[in-house]
Amino acid sequence: MPLALLLSRIRLPAVKMPSTRSNASARLVRASRADLNPVVREVKRESSVSFDVSKCESTASVKRKRVKRELEVNGEYPKKQVGIVPDIEDFRYDRTKAVPSSSKATLSSVKVEEKVRVSSVMKAKAPENWEAVLGGIKNMRLSGQAPVDTKGCEKAGSLLPPKERRFAVLISTMMSSQTKDEVTHAAVERLSENGLLDPDAIVRIDEATLANLIKPVGFYQRKAQFIKEASKICLERFGGDIPDSLNELLALRGVGPKMAHLVMSIAWKNTQGICVDTHVHRISNRLGWVFREGTKQKTTTPEQTRMSLEKWLPKDEWEPINPLLVGFGQTICTPLRPKCDMCGINNLCPSAFKESSSPNPKQKKTRS
């Protein structure tokens, strides 16, 4: 077969040649993108930084102005206090985390606002004739014949050195809850006779023996447990002394606000609030001295009574008000059948002669 005829019969696969025009267009597009990309990235980065910083500075400026206004309104701005007005760094932008450090800013703002509110709380209007009422109660208490006058927590360890006396006051106060002064005083005496007005001695004695010694104090078994725990804490954290702050006292199991305020006043001579027990709570409501916040209704808890009293009662009366009203409640303004006919302020008391004076308070009313 001729060579020419053979070659004509062989079929080779077709090969597509690239288009010159298409290649040129692709190169042009790639070049354009390469040229534009750095510009786009740069512009985007600069825009983001500029926006975020200005936003943070604007937020900081607004917050500083707000704080400044609050301080000026309350008359505190001229007094520069370290740590009150937040530093501009509190509002900075944290680029390492790509989020604003708003937690610092928020905390600083909250602290400032709280301090301003606390320091600028307006005193509540004092009840009418409160000074005459208080003076009349003081006159009735001159005899000093109430149990609290001789057997209250104030008398615990009165002959001991300061450190030992403070511990005795703490233990006496922890036992006093829902217990009469006479019972608490007798329990303190038994502990003293057995050399147990000492944290180290209490830690070494077993709980059952301690419970039997303080019996019949109310809830004596639980109180024995709490007293041992408190004694251990006094040894380990305070060198055998007692805590000298409200928060640390309240951290002790079995110690509530009433006890903490009483211990601070008696043991440390540092009155930070009014000690409100059942007598102070009851009598303050009978006299119309306290109300629930924002209402004209009686307080329902001792803590509500404390906060209401502290809004108007002068601070120099905070410490003596507790033994004064406790003794008044033990002798005249008793829980049941108050002796209004013997009270020297019955003409000023809004509750005088209004509570039952039946000789048998448990007597059931007959149904019609």
TrEMBL record:
Question: Which EC number(s) does UniProt give?
Answer: 3.2.2.-, 4.2.99.18
Q: Which Gene3D superfamilies match?
A: Helix-hairpin-Helix base-excision DNA repair enzymes (C-terminal) (1.10.1670.10), Hypothetical protein, domain 2 (1.10.340.30)
Q: What is its main location?
A: plastid
GO aspect biological process, one term: base-excision repair, AP site formation
> Which residues are in the HhH-GPD domain?
175-331
Tell me, what's a Pfam family for it?
HhH-GPD
GO cellular component, alphabetical, reads: chloroplast nucleoid; nucleus
Q: Mind telling me which PROSITE patterns this protein's record contains?
A: ENDONUCLEASE_III_1
The entry's function note states: Bifunctional DNA N-glycosylase with associated apurinic/apyrimidinic (AP) lyase function that catalyzes the first step in base excision repair (BER), the primary repair pathway for the repair of oxidative DNA damage. The DNA N-glycosylase activity releases the damaged DNA base from DNA by cleaving the N-glycosidic bond, leaving an AP site. The AP lyase activity cleaves the phosphodiester bond 3' to the AP site by a beta-elimination. Primarily recognizes and repairs oxidative base damage of pyrimidines.
User: What family is it from?
Assistant: Belongs to the Nth/MutY family.
* PANTHER family found in the cross-reference section: ENDONUCLEASE III-LIKE PROTEIN 1 (PTHR43286)
Protein name as it appears in the record:
Endonuclease III homolog
Organism of origin is: Panicum hallii var. hallii
